[in-house]
Amino acid sequence: MALSLLLTTGALLTGCGKDLPQTPFDPAGPVARTQLSVLNLTLWFAIGIGTVVSAILIYIVLRFRSRLDDKSVPTQIHGSFKLEVLWTLIPIIILSVVAVPTVKAAFSTYQPSAAEGETMLVKVIGNQWWFAFEYPDQKVVTANELYIPVNKAIRLELTSNDVIHSFWIPKLAGKTDVIPNRVNKMWIKAEETGLFYGQCVEFCGTAHALMRFRVQVVSQEEFDAWIKTRQAGVQEPTDPVALAGKALFEGKNPAKAACFTCHTIDGTKAQGKVGPNLSNIGARSTLGAGVVENNEQTLKEWVRSPRILKPGVKMVDHPNLTDEELNAIVAYLRGLNK
Ligand code: CUA
Q1: What number is the average pLDDT over the span 206-231?
Q2: CB 188 within 8 A of CB 172
């Protein structure tokens, strides 16, 4: 008993801390808050039911246990109309009470109400094992790092290119399945700026656990500036090393690298759609969908042999690049930092 008490307390203390980056117990927006309130309501009902049932059970076990000195046969009964009505009615009442806020929440978290005013649409596309984010109205595409303005309702339309994934940003909204040939909807609104962590929460293959993403919540001004920069397109590199990297990226020597067949860099020859859009790869904080910090060293390791950092990744190794060529590609990508 002491051990289970200790374990429960430990679990409570470590599982629900407010400082954790991925906790639904510290909502930063209306959707997550609504969902937490439903969770709390059902949790209290469950605790109440658990307590009452356990108490009755303990009482019955103690009260009606067999006694050495009592050899009599207990009264034989079959069924109890009163009890059966009671334990049918009580759950019906409890479920009806819980159903009202649950159904309401299901509708209110599906799409923002008119009271939210102007909204913005972002399309979320799941891929093994990364997320693409498309802003159709702004004609901007990014990957694994979602930029959104603070205090604005963002409508998300989710679909998948391959298998079923699930999209979850614990502090902003609960999970929504990301299913091929189907568009699911949800919405988020962040009431504070900062970084929010998310991840795929449906087993989707080898690298499922390494399918993370980040949500960067910024002021409306910062967001507008970001969109404008992205819309302006990428700048042609001036540095000769980066230019050499660009040529390699675009398949100058296919035996060494043909990055352009899988990746897009806006406004260039590279228009592949298999891998993430890399137009602002230099500005992203991580590589491989949240697997490692994005810096020169990790980018080199990633281009050379991504499978070492992310087992299962679909990107190929590049064993034939010389160090000089690898440095050139990395210089080109590092320069895409707007
Ligand atoms: Cu995608 Cu798990």
Answers
A1: 95
A2: yes
Nearest atom in ligand 1 to 165's CA: 1
pLDDT tens-place string over residues 192-203: 999 999 999 999
138-150 pLDDT, tens digit each: 999 999 999 999 9
> What is the distance between the alpha carbons of residues 161 and 179, in angstroms, rounded to a whole number?
8
Mean pLDDT over the full length of the chain: 91
Q: Which residue do the tokens 């399945």 mark?
A: 177
Which pair of structure tokens corresponds to residue 250? Answer: 């675009």
What gap in Å lies between CA 239 and CA 334, rounded to an integer?
12
Distance 117 CA to ligand 1 centre (A): 32
Residue 6: the pLDDT is: 74
Q: Alpha carbon of 191 to those of 96, 175, 218, 227, 236: distances in Å?
A: 32, 19, 10, 20, 37
Q: Which ligand 1 atom minimizes the distance to the CA of 203?
A: 2
Which atom of ligand 1 approaches the CA of 128 most closely? 1
Confidence of residue 12 (pLDDT cuts 50, 70, 90): low
Q: Who's near 212: CB < 8 A, 6+ residues apart?
A: 144, 197, 198, 199, 200, 286, 289, 290, 291
Residues lining ligand 1, judged by CB closer than 6 Å?
126, 129, 165, 200, 202-204, 208, 211
Question: Which residue is listed with tokens 């969109």?
Answer: 227
Task: Specify the 3-state DSSP secondary structure of 298.
Answer: helix
pTM of the model: 0.85
Query: Whose alpha carbon is nearest atom 1 of ligand 1?
Result: 165
pLDDT over 70, % of the chain: 97
- Identify whether the C-beta of residue 194 lies closer than 8 Å to the C-beta of residue 152: no
> In the structure encoding, which two tokens stand for residue 231, read together?
């819309």
Q: What is the DSSP letter of 67?
A: -
